[in-house]
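User: Once you have settled down, look closely at the record that follows, taking as long as you need, and be ready to discuss the fold:
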Amino acid sequence: MVKVYLREDEQRSSEKLSRVLRKFKKMCDKAGISRDIRKHEFYEKPSEVKKRKNLRNKISFQRKMKEIEGKYNQASSQDVV
C-alpha cells in the first residue's frame, strides 16, 4: 500500500482548506489509492477475477485482429488499383 502525506511546508498558511484537500486528493489519485480502494471495496471470488481477466484478454485480442485485418484489406485494395 502506498502512503501519501501532505507535509506542512507544502501547505501554505494562507491556503484554504478546500484547496489543500484538493491537492491531497490529486496526490492520492496519482498514487492509485482511490483505484485500489474501489477494487477492494467488495470481495470478488477468484473465479470472477479469472472471468474478468479472460474477457479483457478476449476483447484485446479481437481489437488487434481487427487492426491487422484493416491493414491487410488496405494493402490488398491498393494492389488492385
The radius of gyration is 23 Å. The mean pLDDT is 83. The first helix runs from residue 17 to 31.
